[in-house]
Automatic annotation (TrEMBL):
GO biological process: dTDP-rhamnose biosynthetic process; O antigen biosynthetic process
Keywords per UniProt: NADP, Oxidoreductase
Protein name, as recorded: dTDP-4-dehydrorhamnose reductase
Family, per entry: Belongs to the dTDP-4-dehydrorhamnose reductase family.
Cofactor: Mg(2+)
Gene3D superfamilies: NAD(P)-binding Rossmann-like Domain, UDP-galactose 4-epimerase, domain 1
Reactions that this protein is recorded to catalyse: dTDP-beta-L-rhamnose + NADP(+) = dTDP-4-dehydro-beta-L-rhamnose + NADPH + H(+)
Superkingdom to which the source organism belongs: Bacteria
Cofactor note: Binds 1 Mg(2+) ion per monomer.
Keyword Oxidoreductase assigned: yes
Pathway(s) per entry: Carbohydrate biosynthesis; dTDP-L-rhamnose biosynthesis
Listed CDD domains: dTDP_HR_like_SDR_e (cd05254)
Entry EC number(s): 1.1.1.133
Amino acid sequence: MRVLLTGAAGQLGQHLQASAPAGIDLVCSRRSGGEQACDLADCQSVLALLDRVEPQLIINAAAWTAVDAAEDHEEQARVLNADLPGWLADWARAHDAGLISYSTDYVFSGEPGRPWREDDPCDPQSAYGRTKRAGELKILDSGARALILRTAWVYSALPGNFLSAIIARAAQGQDLRVVDDQIGSPTWAGSLAEASWRLVERFDRVDAPSILHVAGATAMSWCEFARRALDRAVTVGRIPGPVGLEAIASEAWPQKARRPAWSVLDVRRVEAWVGRPMDSVDEALQECFARWTTSQP
C-alpha cells in the first residue's frame, strides 16, 4: 500500500515513520527538504503533491500546534487545521483513497463526569480548538473514507512538548511548578503511531468518515504526570536525582489560550477496533524512556 505521510518532521510523524510496518510504501512529505517537500498551506501545491504521489492512503500528521499563538493567528492556524484536512479529504473521495487525520481534546469544554465519547457535543474554547473542529467537520462533510483520530496531551522524548521540557529543566536541577487542576489522557506519540498503523491494517472497514478517540488509557493531572515522569527519569538515570515539584492552580500559570479542564478521552471504541487496550501512562513512559536512552524516536 502506498501511504503519503504529511507532517513527517513532527514528533508524531517521526514515530509513524519509525513504526511503519512491512509492506507499506511510505512517502514522507515535509515543509522543506527531501523529494516531497510541500507548502501545505497552499492548495495547489497540496493537490500537485497528491497527484504526483497517487497515495492509496493519506496520513495527515501536519497541523498548527502552537496553541497560544493561534489566539493571535487564527486564520493562519485555520489553513493547516481546517482547510488542509478538507483538501485532503476531497482528493481522497475523488480518487477512492483513504484518509487518517488527527484532532484534539480541545474540541470539548466542560466536565461530563466521565471520559469524553466520540459523539459528545463539541464546544471549543480556543482558536486552536475551533480550527481543529472545523477540520473535523470538513472531513465529515466530504464523504471520504476517513478516520479522524482525536488524541490528547501528546508527548515524546523529542523536543517541543511537555515531557521533554520538564526533563530538560530537571536535568539542570531546576524545581518545577505544574498545574494540578487540568485532568487529561497523556498520550505517548509512539503509542499513537502504533495504534494508527493497526487502524491502517483494518482500514477496509472504513466506508465513510468516522471519529475515534486514540489516547493513553490513564486519566491524571499534569502534575501527577510530571511526578511519574520524573520518577521514571531518575530510575533510568535520565536526570541525576529528584527535584522539587509544586502543584499549582491554572490561575497561577496564565496562558493566552483557554485549556480544557477535563480532557479525558474514552478509548473503548478504538480498543475494540484494534483488539487490544491502549497503553497506560506507566507502560508508555517505560517504553518512551527505554527508547530515549538509546535512539529516537
